[in-house]
Amino acid sequence: xxxxxxxxxxxSVEDREEIKKLKLNPTTIxxxxxxxxxxxxxxxxxxxxxxxxxxxxLKLKMDDIVSDIREDRER
Length: 75
Fold this sequence. Notes:
Low-confidence stretches: none
Number of strands: 0
Oligomer: single chain
Number of helices: 3
Order of helices and strands: HHH
Shape: elongated
Strand content: under 5%
Largest sheet: none
Distance between the termini: 43 Å
Structural class: mainly alpha
Helix content: over 70%
């Protein structure tokens, strides 16, 4: 079972009225926005890690990689 924590945010009166007018669920909007931001930040971290390992990967020779894969398959 998931545990929840309460957060609060101030939004403009206009935005709040628009949410009510459109009959939107603010909880759903906030949860979706939080998940999206988490996803975005994790992707940024992955890109940074990829940039770190790129020089190492570029040093590898394709022939060596292919031969290693073939060797592993034979085991």
